[in-house]
Amino acid sequence: EVQLLESGGGLVQPGGSLRLSCAASGITFSNYVMSWVRQAPGKGLEWISVISGSGDTTYYAASVKGRFTISRDNSKNSLYLQMNNLRAEDTAVYYCAKIVTTTDHWGQGTLVIVSS
Amino acid sequence: QPVLTQSSSASASLGSSVKLTCTLNSGHSNNIIAWHQQHPGKAPRYLMNLEGSGSYNKGSGVPDRFSGSSSGADRYLTISNLQSEDEADYYCETWDRNSRVFGGGTKLTVL
């Protein structure tokens, strides 16, 4: 059974940093493209970043480019999202997602609140 | 970049059927999409991916009541014999070379 378990969310001040992690199990992790998707309170889903199975190709949404960095450690079956210079509008639940053409598995999410 | 358009809301009666629509923008009418279901306060759940031909592949455990179809740039999710637990938000998703896109979501109310 595929499981994706996010961690690392919490309360952070504007301008601060946070690193999210996603631990994957039940899959050969390195075989899969992975992504991060967020959902602000009361809003829809917003894709923010994707990374290839090897980790050598990454893409970002314009809203986070230059502030967020996606990475992975295939030896640890883990996906990461380093978030810097956080803004109030980054407040959201962050989901990691496994991709096979489209997203086919979701984590349970971790909440990030950016507030002073 | 692809754009997905969904109606913001839909409603149907318990035991009836409903057909939700996701429309691809010009230049992306052949894209494969996915449908996801999300209950309030819960993570999204993958339902199926759906090709322009109308062929679809459902995720593990998705009831037979859920089916997909296509017509041109429109992708449909049909839910038959509506149950109370089908009341949820439904999102479609697609991608291009360097980005992924979600529709705005449809809130389905079961009357």
Would you write up a description of this structure?
The complex is a heterodimer of chains A (116) and B (111). By secondary structure, chain A is mainly β. Helix content of chain A is 0%, strand content 55%. Chain A has no helices and eleven strands. Chain A has strands at residues 3-7, 10-12, 18-25, 33-39, 45-51, 58-60, 68-73, 78-83, 92-100, 102-106, 110-114. In chain A, the strands form two sheets. In chain A, strands 2, 4, 5, 6, 9, 10 and 11 form a seven-stranded mixed sheet that branches. Chain A is globular. Chain B is built from no helices and eleven strands. With 111 residues, chain B is mainly β. In chain B, the strands form two sheets. In chain B, strands 2, 4, 5, 6, 9, 10 and 11 form a seven-stranded mixed sheet that branches. The mean pLDDT of chain B is 97.
Sum up the structure in keywords.
heterodimer, A: 116 residues, mainly beta, seven-stranded mixed β-sheet, four-stranded antiparallel β-sheet, globular, B: 111 residues, 11 strands, 0% helix
Which range does the strand content of chain B fall in? over 45%
Radius of gyration of chain A, taken over Cα atoms and rounded to an integer in Å: 13 Å
Along the chain, the helix and strand elements of chain A come as EEEEEEEEEEE
What is the β-strand count of chain A? 11
The pair of chains with the biggest contact is: A-B, 20 and 24 residues
> How helical, in percent, are the residues of chain B?
under 10%
Shape of chain A: globular
- Average pLDDT confidence of chain A is 97
Uncertain segments of chain A are none
Strand content of chain A: over 45%
Low-confidence stretches of chain B: none
User: Roughly what is the average pLDDT of chain B, rounded to an integer?
Assistant: 97
In short:
The complex is a heterodimer of chains A (116) and B (111). With 116 residues, chain A is an all-beta fold.
